[in-house]
Amino acid sequence: MIALFSDINPMMLWLIAGALLILLEIILPGVYLFWIGIAALMVGGVLSVIDLSVTLQILLFAIFALLAVIVGVKTYKGKEIKSTQLNQIRGSEFIGRVMTIDKAVVNGQGRIALGDSTWFIEGEDLPAGSQIKIKAVRGNTLLYEVIQRA
Fold first, then answer.
1. 134 with 143: CB under 8 angstroms?
2. What pLDDT is attached to residue 86?
3. Based on C-alpha coordinates, what's the Rg of the chain?
4. Which of 4, 50, 55, 86 is most buried, taking the most CB atoms under 10 A from its CB?
5. Three-state SS at 50
6. What value does the mean pLDDT take over residues 118-143?
7. Which domains does the chain have, with CATH numbers?
8. Rounded distance between C-alpha atoms, residue 122 and residue 105, angstroms
9. 132 pLDDT above the threshold of 80
């Protein structure tokens, strides 16, 4: 096995290893393989300028990998990916919709049938037959404003 790699330029080995790690990151996302792949590419870049022993190559890779992972962690730390698309928020399809409630809202709480499910609604007290407009969603509760009282 070692004989297989003995004929390949070390710079090419590092560049291939870096490219494979980045490719693996695309297939198995987890963020860290990308930065380690960048470190391998950096070692390949250094080897294109100067020749280093295998020991120094490994040491340089370890340093670059550590620095690259630190940069990666600082770059993505605290950045939560949230969907800005309304269709990704359950109930958001009802926002702006005007509807008539069939049961009274008492103590600011009520229920309304929409499609094949029942939703909690929250707002001011209303008699059955009043018209409301959905203005927001909070968890499994639709918040409304009054359009017309019955």
1. yes
2. 47
3. 30
4. 86
5. coil
6. 91
7. 10-89 (no CATH), 94-148 (2.40.50.140)
8. 8
9. yes
pLDDT(139) > 90:
no
pLDDT in tens, 104-119: 999 999 999 887 788 9
| pTM exceeds 0.85, yes or no | no
95-100 contacts: CB < 8 A, separation 24 or more?
Answer: 95/134, 95/135, 95/136, 95/137, 96/133, 96/134, 96/135, 97/133, 97/134, 98/131, 98/132, 98/133, 98/147, 99/131, 99/132, 99/133, 99/134, 100/129, 100/130, 100/131, 100/132
Strands (E), 31-130: 98-100, 109-114, 117-122
Write down the residue that tokens 């770059």 correspond to: 75
